[in-house]
C-alpha cells in the first residue's frame, strides 16, 4: 500500500500569532474537501440559514478563543494532510486570521478550501473595499459558495449541503474572470479532485 510522502516544513511561512474565535477544529476529515484535511470551524455567522448543520457557530460571542499559531502548530503535526478547510460560521468574518494560516498552508504544499454563505460574486464586490475578504480569497484554492437552502438539501452531493451551492476553482484570483465552476446547479456530474 502506498502512502503520501511525509511533508517537509523547511521553507515555511510562520503565520502571525493572531487571536481567532473558533467553534471547533477537526484534525482529520475526508468529508470537508478532497483528500485528508484539517478543518477549522470559525465562530460567528450572519447568514443564519434554516437547517444549518452548525447553528451553534452563529453567535459571534460563542465558541472559544484560539490563535493562528496554535492552529498552525496542530496542522504541522500531521505530515499526511493534503489540505486545510475553513468553514464555520462564516470564514470571511475572519479573513485576516485565516489568511495567515492559508499562506502558511500554501508554502507547505497544502491546498485550501473555504466554505462561505456568500456567493463568489458577492465576495468579489466586498473584496473591493474589504482587505480581509481580498486576503482570504488570495489563499483560497476552492470555494464552496452560497447559503445552505433547506428545500434544496441533497445528501448525495460531494462537499456541499444544498443543490444551489457551487464549488469553484478560484486559484486565479484576482483574475476572477478565469474562475471555474467545478460543481453546482449548472454543472452535471460531481467534481473530480
Structure description:
It is a single chain. By secondary structure, this protein is α/β, with parallel strands linked by helices. It has a single domain, classed as Alpha-Beta Barrel (TIM Barrel), CATH 3.20.20.70. It is 20% helix and 22% strand. The chain has an eight-stranded mixed β-sheet. The longest helix is centred in the middle third of the chain and has 13 residues, at 95-107. Residues 1-9 have low confidence and may be disordered.
How is this fold's topology laid out?
Blueprint: E1 19-29, E2 37-42, E3 64-67, H1 68-76, E4 83-87, H2 95-107, E5 111-115, H3 120-127, H4 131-139, E6 142-145, E7 166-169, E8 180-183
Parallel strand pairs: 2-4, 4-5, 5-6
Antiparallel strand pairs: 1-2, 1-3, 6-7, 7-8
Quick overview:
The protein has 193 residues and is of the alpha/beta class. It has a single domain, classed as Aldolase class I (TIM Barrel), CATH 3.20.20. Helices cover 20% and strands 22% of the residues.
Q: Enter the CATH topology name.
A: TIM Barrel
Estimated share of beta-strand residues: 15-25%
- Second rung of CATH, namely the architecture: Alpha-Beta Barrel
Number of helices: 4
Q: By CATH's scheme, which homologous superfamily applies?
A: Aldolase class I
Strand order of the largest sheet: 3-1-2-4-5-6-7-8
Report the major sheet: 8 strands, mixed
C-alpha end-to-end distance = 20 Å
Shape: globular
Structural class: alpha/beta
Q: How many individual β-strands?
A: 8
Q: Return the average pLDDT rounded to an integer.
A: 89
SSE series: EEEHEHEHHEEE
Number of domains: 1
- The share of residues in helices is 10-25%
CATH class: Alpha Beta
